[in-house]
Write a structure and sequence with these properties.
Layout (H helix, E strand, L loop, with lengths): L1 E2 L4 E2 L1 E7 L5 E9 L4 H11 L22 E3 L8 H6 L4 E3 L13 H27 L6
């Protein structure tokens, strides 16, 4: 769908890529009103071959397995508890300072830097796709 008023498309793709920018899969198009967390949960629940629990004796090749690490931005904060508890994934997100904190601990700072570096790669992949396919440029 296209908004004449906003002069942009009202859909967005969901890209799954590795830390070095290799695109694994592209899901969507999703309505632009959905947040990242709800899109992630919808993808995980609607694609049973995407995730296979280690305890199952299935010979199915899965893309995501228990104990895999997901490096996400703050837009996914609503889905972290489900990803960690139900799917048994390790989720790393940038931290926020508490009111009483003046600086991050070493571990918090390193995790936040890691997220920033990985997010740069993801945004570069998004930019490359938007340059080639103007329909997803929003």
């Amino acid at each position: 769908s296209y908004s004449v008023q906003k002069k942009q498309h009202l859909v967005k793709p969901f890209i799954l890529c590795t830390t070095n920018g290799l695109i694994i899969d592209i899901y969507g198009l999703f309505t632009a009103t959905m947040n990242d967390a709800s899109i992630m949960l919808q993808i995980m629940s609607n694609n049973p071959k995407l995730f296979v629990k280690e305890s199952s004796n299935s010979e199915t090749q899965s893309l995501i397995r228990e104990n895999d690490v997901f490096i996400l931005d703050r837009g996914f904060r609503d889905s972290t508890s489900i990803l960690e508890n139900e799917y048994k994934l390790k989720v790393i997100m940038p931290h926020f300072l508490n009111e009483k904190q003046k600086q991050f601990t070493t571990e918090q700072a390193n995790e936040s830097r890691l997220c920033t570096k990985i997010r740069f790669v993801v945004e570069a992949v998004n930019g490359m796709l938007k340059k080639k396919f103007r329909a997803v440029d929003g």
